[in-house]
Amino acid sequence: MKSIILLVTLIFSCHLHADAQAEQFYRANKLFQEQQYQDARNEYEGLATKGSLVWYNIGVCFMYEENYVDAVIHFKRALKGAQFNMLEQIFEGIDSARAHLNNNPQKDETMRKLYKYASFFSIFWAQMMFLFFWFLVCICWIYKNKTSRFLRLFLGMCVIWSSASLAAVSWLRSREYVIVIKKSNLFAGPHEEYHSVGNIDVAEQLILLDSKNSWYKVKSSSTVGWVKEEICKQV
């Protein structure tokens, strides 16, 4: 009996939490439409669960507040798991924020195409697709005398395609970046006593490799080095 009461209480609590989240999201959207961007941003940031749309809306609020570095950060966060129909808006937001910062690095069109391709799959469905084609290949191998060579070749190509898709989706979801919020040097080790190995600019995106004692080990477009955690934000 106690277990049943606990389960009912848990379900009821989850329902109330979901309703509260929906109400807060509605309130944030209403404030945004009324052009109260700071209040809208505060409501969006208070949401316990944030998807691509919420991160994008926060980025837009920062654009209106003329805080372009934080706009870039939140647009970048919106990229992870974004649906195909949102990607162009996100890319436009990133380009617009960088233009205001006079920070216009060359666009990585290959990476953008990869994001668009990967947006059609979640990791779960990419895994299911890969396993499904492997299953069909195994069936064809067992009954190879009853299946055509063309079908076996076709399914083999499907396995290669699905494995490449799974690898691309997993790679994009797992890769971690930081955005620079203040100009700095990159150092050879996790301390300012190490020699400088390069410079990094505001809103520059770096690949996060490791962390140690409030320092990040990062990879820029040209080199690998260490930077203080306090001048970067993860995306």
Characterization of the model:
- By secondary structure, the chain is an alpha+beta fold.
- The chain has three domains: 116 residues, Serine Threonine Protein Phosphatase 5, Tetratricopeptide repeat; 52 residues; 58 residues, SH3 type barrels.
- The chain has eight helices and seven strands.
- The strands form two sheets. A five-stranded antiparallel sheet has the order 6-5-4-1-7. The protein has a two-stranded antiparallel sheet with strand order 2-3.
Strand order of the largest sheet: 6-5-4-1-7
CATH class of the largest domain: Mainly Alpha
- How would you describe the shape? globular
Count helical runs: 8
Query: Could you tell me the mean pLDDT?
Result: 86
Q: How helical, in percent, are the residues?
A: 55-70%
Class based on secondary structure composition and strand pairing: alpha+beta
Distance between the termini: 46 Å
**N-to-C SSE series?**
HHHHHHHHEEEEEEE
How much of the polypeptide forms β-strand, as a percent range? Answer: 5-15%
